[in-house]
Amino acid sequence: MNQKQRIKQINEYLLHHNELTVGEACDLFKASPATIRRDFNLLIVKSEVKKTWGGIALTSAANQSSMSPVSYRQTLFAEEKSKIAEEAASYVKDGDIVIIDGGTTTFFLGKFLSQKKIRVITNSILIASQMDKGRYKNSEAEVFVTGGMMYPSSGLLVGPQSIANIKQYNANWAFLSVEGISGDQATNSNQLVVETEQAIIEQCEKVVMLADHSKFGKVSMSRICAIEEIDILITNHHPDNAQLIAEIGEKGVDVVEVR
């Protein structure tokens, strides 16, 4: 990947996460710290970002409310997200009713759930399509899609109609994606998405949050729920998150780390 390509992807990443450290960028773009610092300095000189301790951030916090295209976000830590989704799917048994929030980690659930004899409600056209492709016969997963307004470049259905439809269902499991996990809350950057996620939580017996390691220690604009409202938090193992994971576990959350 050349510098121009990296700069483009760094900008897209910042639209979604607001901040990026040198270490995260090295992992993400498979580049050396010296290379990443040169990229960061170029963006700083052009006044596109501001320097932070160990990295860079967008100059306007308002940009936290925007979402980068889902096709790009699905490429970030794709292997880790797939392993997280596979672990999450192992909790679901035939006969269960599941509500899946649209997200780049929950997207991978489709291929692991499509052949189970379950019912799935989702506000994601992409997840519904993924599950439909994975079905071999009609006796496998039944898929219900909420109505609502399609949020641009996401495949997500949000808004009052989506929430009203979700409230018509009762389910065993809620599977949610997240943009930020701290010691006391789960957060996301888009208010419409958060309102839908809150409705899903209310209708489900168990809440499972799927979050790759890059989401830990971050707080986005809108609060989804208190950390104690999460029954199971599934992530990939990363040594930098050990202390925060221990703190979350002490609050009664079952934290599962995949490797």
TrEMBL record:
Residues 3-58 form the HTH deoR-type domain. The keyword Thylakoid does not apply. Keywords: DNA-binding, Transcription, Transcription regulation. It comes from Mucilaginibacter hurinus. This is HTH deoR-type domain-containing protein. One of its GO terms (molecular function) is DNA binding. InterPro entries: Carb_Metab_HTH_regulators, DeoR-like_C, DeoR_HTH, NagB/RpiA_transferase-like, Tscrpt_reg_HTH_DeoR_CS, WH_DNA-bd_sf.
